[in-house]
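Hi everyone,

Forwarding the result from last night's run.
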Amino acid sequence: MAPPPDAILMQFLFAPLLQQAVCVTAKLKIADLLVHPKTVTELASLTQTHEDTLNRVLRMLISVGIFNKNNEDKFELTPLASLLRSDLPNSMYSFAVKNSSGIRVYGEIVETAHAMNLLPSRTAGFTSTC
């Protein structure tokens, strides 16, 4: 059964935000870290990011099937998320990191991620665009 029209339109309206969320998680190499499921606390610690903000980004990506959360409250890979692993031959990791800077989003999720300490400092090689 096809999704209702309003659900389809919402996907289009949120596409730029989702693109930036994919970019942020790719830069943080979340998919690489989720070879074994992890809690958001573990992921935030490993990536030196703000736990609540990272949780919100990951939950948004769960809503479109990019990540999953299991019964133990741990995030895990889906087939889509596996494409963001940097160590696989069919990886789209580099594409996600290098080609996701073209769309600017109201509120700039990347700037917000920097402001909330979700991403490492700009001096570590990160720019204002993902």
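Residues 5-27 form the longest helix (23 residues).

Cheers,
N.
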